[in-house]
Amino acid sequence: MMNNLLSAFSATLLMLLLAACNPASPGSAETEAPLAGADIGGSFTLTNQDGGTSSDTDFTGKYRIIYFGFTYCPDVCPIDLANLMNGLTLAEKEDPSLAEKIQPIFISIDPERDRPEQLKQYVGNFHPRLIGLTGSVDEIAAVAKKYLIIYNKRESPGFSEYLVDHSRQGYLFGPEGEPIALLPFDGTPQQVADEIKRWTR
Q: What order do you get walking across the sheet with 53-55 strand by strand?
């Protein structure tokens, strides 16, 4: 069932990408951002890794790299985050001004286990400025819906631990929260860095 949902999500996102993409005319050096005009993202107020609150308006004026996952993820989340944050670090080394322009954000889709103290330890492993956000079950569900993230808690009979299946996207949003592009989290850090630098002004 989850695989069918993820497939449907991928198809929906592809249609959004095709609808939002507006290539420049021949000979033009610039193209419109791939996600320009897509209905992705929106307002939120969540609990950060320090136990305080963080809202989308706190990041007005900054580009945002947003990834949804969970700290107990055994494989894909740490690999994706490492690629994204290594790419960001590389981009910052190549253009130091980017450090002031971009805010990386990790949003947990496992609020039952990902409390602030758990998030703080986790995000510190990937980038010094990576912010971890969590919230109530309802709050996370509402934010995930706005950002087109599908997730599902997968429990096994007889086991207290569980996994959370979820769609994987590395989003780049603009200074006003507008969707810009998908970052190649499954590529190399250099590919991530190049995409960041391509769209960050």
A: 53-55, 45-48, 131-134, 102-108, 63-69, 170-173, 179-182
Render 101-118 in DSSP notation, one character per residue. TEEEEEEES-TTT--HHH
Q: Which pTM does this prediction carry? A: 0.85
Q: Give the tens place of pLDDT for each residue, 48-104.
A: 999 999 999 999 999 999 999 999 999 899 999 999 999 999 999 999 999 999 999
Residue range 152-187, pLDDT digits in tens: 998 877 667 899 999 999 999 999 999 999 999 999
CA distances for 144 relative to 21, 32, 124, 135, 190, angstroms? 23, 25, 23, 12, 28
The Cα-based distances of 189 to 48, 61, 183, 192 in angstroms read 26, 25, 10, 5
Single-letter code of the amino acid located at 24? A
Q: Which uninterrupted H or E stretch holds 51? A: none
